[in-house]
Amino acid sequence: TDTDFVVPQLYILVVDDSLTNRKLCIRLLERNGHTCEGACDGEEAVAMVKKSLTIGKPYDCILLDYEMPKMNGPEACQRMRQMGCSSYIAGVTGNVMSEDVDHFRMCGANWVFPKPFRLEALA
To answer: Which tens digit of pLDDT belongs to each residue from 33-91?
Structure first.
């Protein structure tokens, strides 16, 4: 039918310091037709976003974990926005306390999901 919502195939950056979480998320997203790359912390993610903007192939969506070594999600999000990144940034956090969610949003996240998040929620 014409009313079926089709999720477009997206270029997604998955940022999580847990290798297991990162691999699982990428596998699920790729199974749904998306192209994914992974980063292990905020610092690596910011570098990858900078490169993607430089080569003119920005990410459509960035899934960004909150708690990570080197640079946390909100700080990475803020840096990405300062570089001119206009990708849809979804923060993912185990801390669903409103101040954490608000902080992530103030740093530029479009949305914040509780962990573990369901793929349908992202669609």
So the answer is: 999 999 999 999 999 999 999 999 999 999 999 999 999 999 999 999 999 999 999 99
Backbone angles phi, psi at 103, to 5 degrees: -60, -45
Q: Smallest Cα–Cα separation from 105: which of 71, 81, 70, 69?
A: 81
- What number of other Cβ atoms are within 10 A of residue 98's Cβ? 8
Decide the pairing of beta strands 11-15 and 35-39: parallel
| Separation CA 52–CA 43 (nearest Å) | 14
In terms of DSSP bridges, do strands 11-15 and 111-114 run parallel, antiparallel, or are they unpaired? unpaired
Residue with tokens 């999580």: 16
How high is the pLDDT of residue 8? Answer: 79
90: left (phi over 0), alpha (psi -120 to 50) or beta: beta
CB of 107 within 8 A of CB of 49? no
Asked if pLDDT for residue 123 goes beyond 60, the answer is no
Tokens at 111, concatenated? 């949305």
Residue where the block lists tokens 């979480």: 21
